[in-house]
Amino acid sequence: MSKIPSQTFKKEMAKKIAQNKLGNRVGHDVLEKINDEIEEAPAIVSDPDQIHQDWEDGLVSTKTASTLRGYDAEKEVPIAKEEHIDRITEIAKAQTVGMPGQARGVPDGQTNQQTSTDEKKNKKQRGDGKKISKEST
């Protein structure tokens, strides 16, 4: 189904699969609820890796990715965002021990970039080895 571009086809196939797999095992009302959920789904994608990749590539929002994974996006996304901010903050704090404002991977937190550049100017560069004089050869 993932290779067919038609959303209608994907939804109808998903309903047919549900009917074939569950038709005799669940009541009509349960099957109707499944069909309604398939119709209301923003997309027919269930592969977690594909959803994650689409989210990373900016093709879907956090809310849509959460919905496709089966979570209550209205409830979970705000909580997840807050927890994500907390994790990033803690990582930045842990990386600044002894170097306030200089977290690795957080260039916006660097407070004294000029000093850093000046220090690099005075350091020996690759290839600045000892000069061999003609007398020693």
Radius of gyration: 28 Å
Say how many strands there are. Answer: 0
The assembly state of the depicted protein chains is single chain
Which structural class fits the helix and strand makeup?
Answer: mainly alpha
Please provide the ordered H/E string of secondary-structure elements: HHHHHH
Distance from first to last alpha carbon: 74 Å
Name the poorly predicted regions: none
Q: What is the 3D form? A: elongated
Largest sheet: none
Number of helices: 6
What's the overall average pLDDT, rounded?
Answer: 81
> Strand content of the residues, in percent?
under 5%
Helical fraction equals 55-70%
Describe the structure.
The radius of gyration is 28 Å and the shape is elongated. The relative contact order is 0.06. The protein is mainly alpha-helical and 137 residues long. The longest helix is centred in the middle third of the chain and has 23 residues, at 73-95. It is 57% helix and 0% strand.
Give a nutshell description of this structure.
The chain is mainly alpha-helical. It contains six helices and no strands.
Task: Please describe the topology of this protein.
Layout: H1 7-22, H2 28-40, H3 48-56, H4 62-68, H5 73-95, H6 113-122
Entry keywords:
6 helices, single chain, elongated, 57% helix, 137 residues, mainly alpha
